[in-house]
């Protein structure tokens, strides 16, 4: 039987890093952030809908969605965020299902979904892996690595579920407060515990 896992965690918790380690161990990864980019690529119906809702000023000169501009709009206004999500989420969901259906019987498929809790998807999976870090560490990483101000980082965190809400749906918790080597070891422990 294909084993289907949901993987989630707050912004900058280390989800992508954990996904990469699972991929090295043999999992198939479906990354919602990647799909969320594909569904608004130039020429897509998704991008046309975003332009209809937010205006052509959210396009770059190359005709791509200006992610910094859209981010500044939607993380300052929950109603606008909802409009964007209504365009993107159903399309991401359908693409993820298509990829999932191509998986083989013995595969472990890991769906990396930042908003798994917010979009109520925990029950779709055989197990849920939560990458957990203290909020201060999320802010520190976003400021250090992504050039955000502490206020911008906090606005993104505030747009997401709380640590407690995520931990409440976790089958496995991967704490990511140590070194990358420690993270790798913890991911391997979870991999070895998976029911297969
Ligand atoms: C707002 C956008 C343009 C900002 O783009 P940007 O390149 O700066 O960020 P990126 O897409 O790499 O997302 C980084 C992280 O931000 C957080 N995030 C993104 N969208 C949301 C949201 N709607 N609500 C809460 N957190 C979010 C997630 O933790 C995500 O991993 C982009 O995130 C987007 O299109 N969001 C809406 C789609 C969505 O909900 N994506 C998340 C999972 S499908
Ligand atoms: N244990 C660790 N030690 C040091 N740096 C780390 C560790 N884990 C992750 N990082 C770094 O922190 C940053 C965020 O990690 P990553 O991109 O994996 O998070 P994410 O949860 O996928 O983020 P997002 O929600 O924005 O997609 C990256 O630059 C990554 O290299």
UniProtKB/TrEMBL annotation:
It is found in: Cytoplasm. The keyword Protein biosynthesis does not apply. Coiled coil: none annotated. ATP binds at residues 12-17. InterPro entries: Depp_CoAkinase (IPR001977), P-loop_NTPase (IPR027417). Its main location: cytoplasm. Keywords: ATP-binding, Coenzyme A biosynthesis, Cytoplasm, Kinase, Nucleotide-binding, Transferase. It catalyses: 3'-dephospho-CoA + ATP = ADP + CoA + H(+). Its EC number is 2.7.1.24. Pathway: Cofactor biosynthesis; coenzyme A biosynthesis; CoA from (R)-pantothenate: step 5/5. Belongs to the CoaE family. Catalyzes the phosphorylation of the 3'-hydroxyl group of dephosphocoenzyme A to form coenzyme A. This is Dephospho-CoA kinase.
């Amino acid at each position: 039987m294909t084993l289907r896992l949901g993987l989630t965690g707050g912004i900058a918790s280390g989800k992508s890093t954990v996904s990469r380690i699972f991929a090295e161990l043999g999992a198939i990864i479906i990354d919602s952030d990647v799909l969320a980019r594909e569904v608004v690529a130039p020429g897509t119906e998704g991008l046309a809908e975003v332009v209809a809702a937010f205006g052509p000023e959210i396009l770059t000169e190359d005709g791509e969605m200006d992610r910094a501009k859209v981010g500044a709009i939607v993380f300052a206004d929950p109603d606008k965020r909802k409009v964007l999500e209504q365009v993107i989420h159903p399309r991401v969901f359908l693409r993820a299902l298509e990829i999932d259906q191509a998986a083989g019987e013995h595969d472990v498929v890991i769906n990396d979904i930042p908003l798994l809790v917010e979009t109520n998807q925990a029950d779709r999976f055989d197990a849920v892996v939560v990458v957990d870090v203290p909020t201060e560490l999320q802010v520190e990483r976003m400021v250090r690595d992504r050039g955000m101000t502490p206020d911008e980082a906090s606005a993104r965190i505030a747009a997401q579920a709380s640590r407690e809400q995520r931990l409440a749906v976790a089958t496995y918790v991967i704490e990511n407060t140590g070194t990358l080597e420690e993270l790798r070891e913890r991911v391997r422990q979870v991999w070895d515990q998976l029911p297969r």
